[in-house]
Amino acid sequence: MFICPGCRKKFMIPICENCGNTVENQNGIWQLTDAPDIVTTGEGDKYIGYEHIGGAFSGNRKYLIDEGDTLFAEYISKITGDGVFLDLACGDGCLTVPCAKNGTKIIAGDISNTMMTILQKRAGKNGISLQNVTLCRMNALDVLIEDNSIDSAVANSVLHLISNPEKVIGEIYRVLKPGGHFICKDDAPGKTAKTGEEFADENTAFIQITNEIYASYWTKLNSVGITAKKYSWKFDRDTACRSLFSTVETKRIERNKPFFNKLTDTFLPRFSGKGFSDQVDVPDDLHKTVMEEVMIEMRGKYGELIDTIGYHGVENDILIFDYVK
């Protein structure tokens, strides 16, 4: 099912019988690629990996299993059946782990060993076995899996981090079997939330504070020549997929579940931990200095409100686009 990174022939991990190449396993993760975890310079394809920022990606909620992800995982597992699911750019396992709980056979690939280590811990802390999961350090621009061998695939929250997202979709199309599914998730506004009206003032303050933190941080960095790193945030995935796949099916999962996201549990630890993709080129020492300056400003202006404020809302519905090869 895999392609040898040495001779590019079909092989079974870990040893290629054709060329003798052996794939190393580091802490349960097969090292299928030696590509750098991030490329932001040069003339070729560029991409952002989370090797050095992934620890802060989910704030203080990194080991929790989100109910919305569980519902999406149920759809993936049902579509995959007894086949194999490729969770490309699996990250911290928000989909791999609940799919593993369903007993789905999974190849989980990411360019970041750090993120997949969090995936392992997420599974462990929730008592979920990864027996049916093959973890691989993998480059989404060069997926070392043979043609027509995968039953379903997801590339969740990664296309916007790559300068050539069409190439990733092409790789997914290549490895899927005829009739295979590329499953994508979007947010769709659900029912109007009464909580949004009840907590309108607090929500407005939450948005104002987060915007001010973001703006102050980047204003200071822009002044020394450092800008936010962004790639394909406006990429039209649907148009690209419809040009390749034979059909597309849609499904909407209603949510309407109230939530409360505390600033000090979500945005603040992620941002202060340099866990957003646009922060990848910020030197650690400069980030620390600027973040300390920003928080002195914010606490001087808002005081203890920063420690208590949060955002009250209702979860968006889940809109699934299922592109069939």
Explain what this protein looks like in three dimensions:
This protein starts with a strand and ends with a strand. The chain folds into two domains: 2-190 and 231-257 and 316-324, Rossmann fold (3-Layer(aba) Sandwich); 194-229 and 259-312, no CATH class. The strands form three sheets. A nine-stranded mixed beta sheet has the order 3-4-7-6-5-8-9-13-10. It has helices at residues 67-80, 96-101, 113-125, 165-175, 194-198, 200-222, 237-242, 267-272, 284-302, 305-308; strands spanning 2-3, 10-11, 25-26, 29-31, 84-88, 105-110, 133-137, 150-154, 176-188, 247-253, 258-262, 310-314, 317-324. The protein is of the alpha/beta class. The mean pLDDT is 93.
CATH topology of the largest domain: Rossmann fold
End-to-end span in angstroms? 18 Å
Q: State the major sheet.
A: 9 strands, mixed
Please tell me the CATH architecture of the largest domain by its name: 3-Layer(aba) Sandwich
How many runs of DSSP E, i.e. beta strands? 13
Tell me, what is the CATH class of the largest domain? Alpha Beta
Multimeric state of these chains?
A: single chain
